[in-house]
Amino acid sequence: MRKVLFVAGEASGDLHAAGVAASLRRIRPELELAAIGGAKLAEQGVEMIHLDAHLGVMGFFEILEHIPAHFRLLGRITDMMRRGELALIVLIDYPGFNMKVAERAKEFGVPVLYYVTPQVWAWGSGRLPKLARLVTKAAVILPFEEKLLRGYGVDATFVGHPMLDRAVDMPSKAQARAELGIPDDAEVLALFPGSRQQEIERHLDDFVAAANMLCAKRPGLRVLVSVAETVKLDPSRCPFPLVHSQSLNVLRAADAGLCKSGTTTLEAAIAGCPLVVAYRTGRISYALARMVVTVPHIGLVNVVAGREVAPEFIQDDIKAKSITAALTKLLDAGPAREKALAGLAEVKEKLGSAGAADRVSAMASAMLP
C-alpha cells in the first residue's frame, strides 16, 4: 500500500500535523502514514522518515546554512516518489522547503494537500499562480485566505484555526492561576519572547527591561515568562519565573501580555488577554522584508482584525519606555483595555470553530483511493 507523507518543518507544524495524523488514523486505520517532522508526529506511531522538531529557521541569511540538509531531505522524498511509494503528500507550513516538495510532487503526479499555506497575503500575490499550479488542495487557517487563494485558482477551503482545538477545554482565569500558583488578586504580566533561540536572543533583554520598569511602577506585579521546552535562558538575563509549554494557561492567567509577533498573538485573542506585539529580526533580513511585505501590520492578531487591536513595536522601536506606556494602558481599567478586549473577541470569532484537524483529515481521505 502506498503511503501518506506528512512534511512539517517546525514545532508548530509538527503539532498541527500530529492532530491530522491522529484523526486520519481514526477514519482510515488501514492507511500507512509516514512523516518528516518532530516528536508529536512520532508519538502518533507514524513512520518517521526524518525526526527533527527544529528544522525551522528564520531570516533570509539564517537559512543558508541549512540548505545542504534540506537538499538531502528533498532527495529522500523524491526517491520515494520515484519508487511510487506515495499516494498523497500533506505539507504543513514551512514554505521555503515545502514548495520545493510540491514541485517534485507535480513532476511525479503525486497529489498535494497544503495545510497552513504560505503567507502570500504578506509577501505579495506573485507566488499565488505557482501555488495554484503545484497544489491539489489547500486547507487554510485564516478567514480571508480562502477567498484570496480561490481568486487565483487555488482549490482552498477554510478549516478554522487549529489553535481552537487546544482551547476547547481552556481553563477559566481563576483555574489557570490556581494551576500556576498565582493568587486571584495578583496583577500579572506575561512575557512571550519567542519559541526559537534566535527570537529569544533578539527579544529577551528588551522584554525584561520593560517588565522591570513596570514592576518599579506597579508594586506587587507578577511576571511570568512563557517558553518552549527546547528554549534555554540565562538566569542572569531573566529574573522572572519560567513556565514551560503552557502558553494558553499563562495567557488566561495574565492581565496583559508582551508577545513577539506570530501565532502567540492569536492565542492571546483566544485567551482574551490584551497584548503588545514586538518583533525584531536581523537588519539585513528586515531591510529585504520591507521590500516585499505588503500588509500594514506584522502581528497576526492585527492582520486578522484588519486593524490594530494590539500596539506593535518593530525593530528599533522596541524600547522599554514605549512598551511600558502601552502595557500600562492595557493593565489599567479603562477605555483602552475595554477596546482591546472587544477587538480580541472579534478576532477569536473570525478564527472559526474547533475541529480543524478533523476537517483536514476528511479532505485528505477524500483525495485517496
Q: Can you walk me through this structure?
A:
This protein is elongated. By secondary structure, it is α/β, with parallel strands linked by helices. Residues 55-65 have low confidence and may be disordered. It has helices at residues 11-27, 39-43, 67-82, 95-108, 120-123, 128-134, 145-150, 163-166, 173-180, 197-217, 247-253, 263-271, 283-292, 300-305, 320-331, 335-350, 356-366; strands spanning 3-8, 32-37, 47-51, 86-92, 112-115, 137-140, 156-158, 188-192, 222-227, 242-244, 256-260, 275-279, 312-314. The chain has two domains: 3-161 and 354-366, Rossmann fold (3-Layer(aba) Sandwich), CATH 3.40.50.2000; 169-350, Glycogen Phosphorylase B (Rossmann fold, 3-Layer(aba) Sandwich). β8, α10 and β9 (222-227) form a beta-alpha-beta unit. The strands form two sheets. A seven-stranded parallel β-sheet has the order 3-2-1-4-5-6-7, sandwiched between helices. It has a six-stranded parallel β-sheet with strand order 10-9-8-11-12-13, with helices on both faces.
